[in-house]
Amino acid sequence: MRRSRKKYERPRRMWDKKRIEREKEIVKNFGLRRKREIWKAEALLRKYRRMARKLAVKKDKKLEKALIEKLTKLGILNKNANLDDVLSLIPENILERRLQTIVHRKGFANTIKQARQFVAHGHVIIDKRKIVYPGYLVPKAEEKKMQLNIPFQTKKVDK
User: Fold this and answer.
1) Burial, 4: exposed, middle or buried (Cβ in 10 Å; 0-12, 13-18, 19+)?
2) pLDDT of residue 151
3) Are 128 and 140 spatial neighbours (Cβ–Cβ below 8 Å)?
4) Which of 5, 122, 143, 151 has the greatest number of beta carbons closer than 10 A?
5) b or e along 108-128 (b: 16 or more beta carbons within 10 Å of the residue's beta carbon)?
6) Total-model pTM
7) 121-143 pLDDT per residue, tens
8) What is the CATH number of domain 98-159?
9) Nearest to 39 by CA among 10, 15, 17, 14
10) Taking 60 as the threshold, does the pLDDT of residue 158 lie above it?
11) Angle separating helix axes 17-30 and 36-58, nearest 10 degrees
12) Per residue in 18-51, is it b (16+ CB within 10 Å) or e — as a string?
């Protein structure tokens, strides 16, 4: 069996008080299960920012356009963005595109934790596919095709 590679890096200073407070606030706002989810978003953002810095040096317009187009399709950037916009992204921009967050923002769930529960239990369907990963990054095109599928439940009536 092949072992998968980690998709994040732990912080260098584990007991930095400012970082811990900031992460605690992010966990509360986005209904995350553990701080590892923040670290994954930071790693993904670090990857895109590193690519943008390299492209700024190379001045390769074709690859610049491809990077910006990819981030636009994900809904992280606007249509008329440039490399400076990629460099000014923060982890919250990535966390905002997670399936759990979008389910809550669209009003399918009352709380962010309930949104996570709906996703994990398979009640969210995107384009006729059941997605059970709360951390799934929803592309802008798929956001309109999202629907909630909760089976009909009958209430018990005491006689």
Assistant:
1) exposed
2) 77
3) no
4) 143
5) bbeebeebbebbeeebbebee
6) 0.88
7) 999 999 999 999 999 999 999 99
8) 3.10.290.10
9) 10
10) no
11) 100
12) eeeeebeebeeebbbeebebbbbbbebbeebeeb
At position 103, the amino acid (one-letter code) is: V
Structural domain spans, the chain: 12-95, 98-159
Distance CA 112, CA 115 (A): 5
Other CB atoms within 10 Å distance of the CB of residue 133: 12
Is the distance from CB of 91 to CB of 11 less than 8 angstroms?
A: no
Q: Which residues 6+ apart lie within 8 Å of 31 measured at CB?
A: 100, 101, 104, 111, 112, 113, 115, 116
pLDDT digits (tens, 9 = 90+) for 47-76: 999 999 999 999 999 999 999 999 999 999
Whether pLDDT at 35 is above 80 = yes
Half-sphere exposure of 90 (CA within 13 A, CB side): 4
